[in-house]
Fold this sequence. Notes:
Layout: E1 5-8, H1 19-28, H2 38-49, H3 55-62, H4 71-89, H5 92-103, E2 107-115, H6 116-126, E3 130-136, E4 148-149, H7 156-165, H8 167-170, H9 174-178, E5 181-184, H10 190-195, E6 198-202, H11 206-215, E7 218-220, H12 229-240
Helix pairs in contact: 1-4, 1-12, 2-3, 4-6
Amino acid sequence: MPRNFAIFDLDHTILPFDTQALFCNYILQRERWRTLFHLTFAPVALLKACRIVSTATAKRAFLNHLAGMKREALIALAKDFAELVVKPSVYPELLAIIEEHRTAGRTLILNTASPDFYAHEIARVLGFDHCIATRVEVHDKMLLMPRVIGENNKRAVKIARMKVEIPEVANADEAVLRDSWSYSDSAADLPLLEFTGNAVLIHPNASMEAIGKQRGWQILRPARPYASRAGDLLCAVQQALGLWQRNT
Length: 248
């Protein structure tokens, strides 16, 4: 009998942070000098704010703080990051939900726009069956502006990638999808939320909450370590500069 699915976004869904900023925080606290690479990111961030460059380009530029790092060191740090930073930061409610789906026999899929070199480690630590993430080219040493392989894993790309990489998803019939679940915080994930018969929103903004209520979707608001969107932004800035500490 075909198994149903439980599909989860990562950032601001399973945990209350942007993992790119959180991983940057983890790296910069070990190698402070890498903060200098943000000088190469700043002009790209400005162009992104002006909608001149794409999100994928901005992502590549933000990853410049890893330039020159050996592949072996990067993978080791990604494993430690998943275990020591991400796992303790996950919403307890979401951990319980993941376990409920596992017990129910559903296939667990982490589907995120985050870079694959640490997303796969997070999926492993949290016990997911599959991980779909943005593929970033990792050489023996990380390059400036590392290449994104294929498309940034957002919006409808998430569905297309699942169908290519997970045959069970490609072959799933309406009955299987009707008893499947999807979780996200973001309007960018509307295709993902609409893909399954059961959608759950995590701390949606006002427009997403209105969509969710109209469609009868469940809404969860687990406790967060900040009180507002401004608090979330402050955490992200601190993390991007390597200044964030747990319980601050």
